[in-house]
Amino acid sequence: MNILVIGSGGREHALAWQCAKDEAVDNVYVAPGNAGTALEPKCQNVVLKDNNDEHDAVIEFCKNNNIDMVIVGPEAPLVTGIVDACRKAGIKAWGPTAYCAQLEGSKTFAKEFMAEHNIPTAAYQGFTDVDSAKAYIDEQGAPIVIKADGLAAGKGVIVAETIEQAYAAVDDMLADNKFGDAGSRVVIEQFLQGEEASFICMIDGKNILPMATSQDHKRAFEGDTGPNTGGMGAYSPAPVVTQEVHDKVMTQVIQPVVDAMNAAGHPYTGFLYAGLMIDNAGDPYVIEFNCRFGDPETQPILMRLQSSMVDLVAQGLAGTLPAQAKWDERPALGIVMASKGYPETSSKGDVITGLPALDQANDSAIKVFHAGTAFNHNTALDNQKADITTDEDKEVVTNGGRVLCVTALADTISDAQQAALTVTAAIGFDGAQYRRDIGHHAITRKDA
If you write DSSP's letter for every residue of 336-379 in order, what string do you get? Predict the structure, then answer.
């Protein structure tokens, strides 16, 4: 069996790693991948280029390389309809259609969808005009949340603690075009109190398979302070998602999405991510929907997965998803190492030292997943194992904002945190930054 994983981040490294472990799999191609995916057994990076249509390049590669299934990692190709294009060409692709992917591609679409189908979420209004947006901020007060309507790589959300910060966010998005087309419209919404959790499912159009629960850490600095990022670390499971909360999420959030998409004639298939705020009463509110596996949640979740990811995707494509998967009972925790300047800027070409040897990195209890990495000789990411011949070639360098996710599996969250921190502390590159408190909500909850 041959599999194509689309994407270049830590999520895609984790997906490729899980797929390659399946004995039925011969080759896992990753487009474009990173230095980590290039080094994985049975994995190979490929760069797919087509001057006319990126989708055409994917389809051509699949046909020429006998690809049995495509797993789409990031949101951008889903929003532009890669799954629709593959299906039309007779290629099996795991992910939602472009219609369904609007849940992530447009905050306005998502909020209107939730309002129509009574899915609990924060009160909101959408704006394209600066003065109207600021007038609404004056009316609502702070703290308040400002979101770019479109895709902004997880960074188009500003939690404004003051009116002045909210004004600045609106100016950045609507007046100064900080996020390009993604910020040409903003959604301003109520600030919700509570504890966040990530609830990710596999959906085959009808059947729902909940993944293990997790909690991401969006803020850049320890103590959940600083600017929002794509995610500085995550752990699984999330104790805040009790069985009662889990049941509420399934009945109040996930099932209504499945039912509504079916009613609209667009069955939802693929991963669905509900970013939640759980209030003190244990009631869930949707902060955002993502139309793919979360990053960095994927890394600790897949460390715990004992079922075959390949089998689960195959069952999803066939419309026969099981109700449950098999999980390691131990928790897993991942710490993101980011490059200097992240999230405002990122750095490329800084040599990374201290990475575990491949045999150590593939230890069942610790794994360093690559995200923004490349080999020193080829920052274009066209990394074939045959190219890695000299010591300089073997040097791994930074190639983006989030560089690595050091992930550990242990008996407790505290043990997993310490194991991950030990490996993280041994890895270095210019300007490396990471949080040392990933998992603190779970650890505090246990100590209370």
Answer: EEE-TTTTT--EEEEEPB-PPPHHHHT-TTEEEEESSEEETTBT
Query: At 116, which helix (H) or strand (E)?
Result: helix 107-116
Q: Read off the pTM.
A: 0.90
Using DSSP, state whether 150 is helix, strand or coil.
Answer: coil
What is the three-class DSSP state of 160?
A: strand
Residues near 285 by Cβ (< 8 Å), separated by ≥ 6?
A: 120, 121, 122, 192, 194, 276, 277, 278, 279
- Maximum pairwise Cα distance, the chain: 63
Contact 294, 202 (CB under 8 A): no
Sign of CA dihedral 70, 76, 79, 82: negative
From 285, 294, 291, 255, select the one nearest 272 (Cα to Cα).
Answer: 291
Strand segments (E) across 169-265: 186-190, 195-204, 208-210, 215-216, 219-221, 225-228, 233-236
CA-CA distance, 415 to 420, in Å (whole number)? 9
The answer to whether the peptide bond before residue 143 is cis (omega within 30 degrees of 0) is yes
d(CA 154, CA 164): 22
CB-based burial, 174-185: b 16+ in 10 Å, e otherwise: beeebbeebbeb
Three-class SS of residue 275?
strand
CA–CA dist 323, 210 (Å, integer):
8
How many distinct helices (H) and strands (E) make up the chain?
Answer: 17, 23
Q: Would you give the DSSP letter of residue 213?
A: P
Query: Which spans in 154-215 are helix H?
Result: 163-170
Q: Mapped to the 3 state alphabet, what secondary structure does 367-410 carry?
A: EEEECCEEECCECCCCCCHHHCCCHHHHCEEEEECEEEEEEEEC
What is the chain's pLDDT, residue by residue, as a tens digit (448 residues)?
A: 999 999 999 999 999 999 999 999 999 999 999 999 999 999 999 999 765 578 999 999 999 999 999 999 999 999 999 999 999 999 999 999 999 999 999 999 999 999 999 999 999 888 988 999 999 999 999 999 998 887 766 567 888 999 999 999 999 888 877 666 655 789 999 999 999 999 999 999 999 999 999 999 999 999 999 988 989 999 999 999 999 999 999 999 999 999 999 999 999 999 999 999 999 999 999 999 999 999 999 999 999 999 999 999 999 999 999 999 999 999 999 999 999 999 989 999 999 999 987 545 455 799 999 999 999 865 444 444 445 444 455 799 999 999 999 999 999 999 999 999 999 999 999 999 999 999 999 998 865 4
Q: Contacts from 47-54 at CB under 8 Å and sequence distance 24+?
A: 47/380, 47/381, 47/382, 54/80, 54/82
